[in-house]
Each structure stands twice: as C-alpha cells, then as structure tokens.
Design goal:
By secondary structure, the protein is of the alpha+beta class. The chain is built from five helices and 23 strands. A hairpin with a 6-residue loop joins strand 4 and strand 5.
C-alpha cells in the first residue's frame, strides 16, 4: 500500500514504488525465514477496537477546577519566579488599547495577582484600591455584547493567586471587569501579553461615576488585576500502543523504529498520539507529512531516540484532526529515498495484514519496547509462538 502524492515525473513514481516493494518483499522473506509459518488468522493485535464513549455535557463548565470532575489537565501553580516575570511586564505603562493574541473557546482562567495600587478620585479627597472595586470578571467575543461572566472570580476577594476557573464555549478575544463604585459599569481595559509561551491578561482600573468622588482616571498600568489564560487540554487516557519496523533494515526485528500510544475519539473527531521512541534512521511519518517523528523529537533523521542506549527525549503528544475507523487505519509512512522530495514520488505505508509478515503490531500500553538491535524474540520469547498462533495474544 502506498500513499500517492502529485508528481511531475513518472520516473520518480516508478523508482519510489519499486524501492518500497523491494523492501517489503525482503522484509517478508526474512521474517518468515526467522519465525516460520504465520497463523493465517493473526491480525497482529489490530482486531482490538477503539472504545466508544458517550458524549457528555458539562452543565456547569464555568466552575472551579476539580480534577475528579473534569477531564482536563490541571494548570501548573503560579510560582514566585513566574509572578516576578509577569509583574515586570505589567508594572510598566502600556498603550491605550490592546488586542487578544489568542482565540480559544475552552480555557482556564487562573488568578495571578491582586493589585495594591491606590488611585485618587477626581475630587482630590477620596481614593480607591482599584482591585477592591473590580468585582466581576468576564470574557467576551470582541463584540462587547457577550460579557460571559467568569463565576467566583473577583479581584477583591479571590485568592491572591492560583484560583482556577474553567470556561467552556466562551471566548478569549476580549476581557473586562465590572466596577462596583460605578454602579456596575463594564470596562474593557485589558492588556494581553505572551511571556515564556504563556498568556496573561492585566486590567487597568477606571471609574466614571456621576460625581467627582466616583471618578478615577486611567493610568494605563495594567496591574490592578492580572490573570493567566491557559488552554484546557484534554487529559488523555491512551488505549493502545503501536510498535513498528520501518523496512530500512529488513533483517532487524526489534520493532522500535517508531513506538507510539494512540487514542481515537470519534465524538471529537480526533486521534491523539503520544510519540514514545524512534529507533529508525529514515524519515517516518504518523498520520500525515506534518508529523515526522525525528522532527517531533527535535533531532536529525539519523538520530535514534529513547531506545535505551540512544538519546533520551520526553514523549511528544499531538493530535490528528480525524477519528480513524480503527487503529490499523492510522497511516504510518516511510520515505525510503531521502533525496526525493515529499511532493515527488510515493511514501510507503507500513502494513499489518492478517496472516502476513507485520510491519507494525498493536500491543497494550504496558508493553516495554525493545532496546536497539535486541531482536523481539530475545526480549519476549513467546513472540515466536505468537507468530504461529494468534491465541498467544498476550505474548509480552
């Protein structure tokens, strides 16, 4: 099976296809020579189906974060070093208006800082601690009509920091607050900044009541109230692990050329991938050509990652905007000719056909993949029995 791409040269297509077919034939012959006759009913674990969960609604999405209620990863606490960096930015005078840097609908709002600045009223007699008058935070879609109240979030009585609220089906295009000293008037005096890859919103206090003692001019220092906006990332429970041979060396059967965990969510039309290891040294792609495994780990193509005697990298998680019908349908592709650009020629798709030499195998997420150049039957002797009888499904 090959994944075809537009080509301006038929010769390139023929050459690439022949390389893939040649590698597959050599892999098949060497596998059968090593392990013997294959059970014609062996589906290499891919008979396991993705679990289907009923879609659930969160009737109170605007609520304090609770890990036992919500299937999202909890934002990390705000530390002293982070707070210092944020204040360094927001303590400086800013512009009259700012635009949002992000457009999210599901996110956390996390308390960072309750301001202490005192603002004089226009009568020259009264003054206000601005944050004490800002008692109603809201998110808006930029129209200044949505005003989506963020429950329990008041600068005056909220926690000094780390109070966390979840927002679902909301917007991050604009933010504002209600001024209690101005009969609940809404103000959109916000400033959004990206700091170390995170997003923060600071507010500048203003009051515009009828009397001079109720009027406070802006100072354009957005430190009267600061919150952090954190994307609500799903807390993924991966369902299966896929281990692959990339056909680069057709007599090496360690099945660690790429190892990744997978979850298919048909409700959200997503496939979630957690890349664990890359023991191969040729270009290899999961899902599409935007996800080359060495690129994802941040290494050159010839560098092996996380195969025990090789370089170590943290796992990489990403999602594909499609819910595949089953685990076997997730494309795992190789480019056997690095000199051929991806827009030319064909990529070879790794296969797991019933009763044929497997180029990929599905296992449970507790499977420990082999070290480099350790043949799979050396680490897991029952693998030989599994080849000839699919009843040895728990061979590791």
């Amino acid at each position: 099976m090959t994944a075809a791409f537009t080509s301006c040269s038929k010769n390139n297509d023929i050459e690439q296809i022949s390389k893939g077919q040649e590698a597959e034939a050599s892999f098949k012959a060497n596998f059968e020579k090593r392990y013997g006759q294959i059970d014609p009913q062996n589906d290499w674990g891919f008979g396991k189906t993705a679990s289907v969960r009923t879609r659930t609604a969160n009737p109170n999405g605007n609520q304090w974060y609770a890990s036992n209620q919500l299937n999202y990863v909890e934002p990390a606490p705000i530390g002293d070093a982070e707070l210092e960096k944020v204040l360094t930015v927001f303590n400086q005078k800013g512009a009259e208006s700012y635009e949002s840097l992000i457009d999210w609908s599901t996110f956390f709002v996390q308390q960072v800082y309750k301001g202490v600045a005192v603002h004089p009223a226009k009568d020259g007699l009264n003054s206000y601690i601005g944050s004490n008058q800002m008692n109603w935070l809201f998110a808006d879609d930029g129209t200044h009509t949505m005003n989506d109240h963020i429950n329990n979030f008041n600068a005056g009585d909220n926690k000094d920091y780390n109070g966390i609220m979840l927002m679902e089906k909301s917007s991050t295009k604009a933010f504002g607050y209600n001024c209690s000293s101005d009969n609940g008037r809404l103000f959109y005096n916000f400033r959004m900044e990206e700091i170390d890859g995170n997003y923060y919103v600071g507010f500048d206090f203003e009051a515009a009541g009828q009397n001079l003692n109720e009027q406070v001019e802006r100072d354009y220092i957005y430190n009267d109230w600061i919150v952090k906006i954190v994307p609500a990332r799903p807390n993924i429970t991966y369902e299966a692990r896929i281990i692959c041979e990339d056909l680069g060396a057709t007599d090496d059967f360690d099945f660690n050329d790429v190892v990744f965990d997978v979850k298919i969510d048909k409700n959200k039309n997503k496939t979630y991938i957690k890349l664990l290891a890359a023991g191969g040294t040729i270009p290899l792609y999961i899902g599409d050509t935007d996800h080359e495994v060495h690129d994802l780990f941040g290494v050159d193509t010839g560098v092996m990652v996380n195969t025990y005697n090789t370089g170590e990298k943290a796992p990489v998680e990403f999602e594909l905007n499609r819910a595949y019908e089953n685990y076997n349908a997730i494309p795992v592709m190789i480019n056997l000719d690095e000199a051929t650009a991806l827009g030319e020629g064909n990529l070879t798709v790794l296969k797991a056909e019933m009763g044929a030499a497997p180029q990929k195998i599905l296992v449970d997420t507790d499977y420990v993949w082999c070290g480099e150049r350790l043949q799979i039957e050396t680490v897991y002797p029952n693998f030989i029995q599994y080849v000839s009888s699919h009843n040895y499904s728990r061979w590791w």
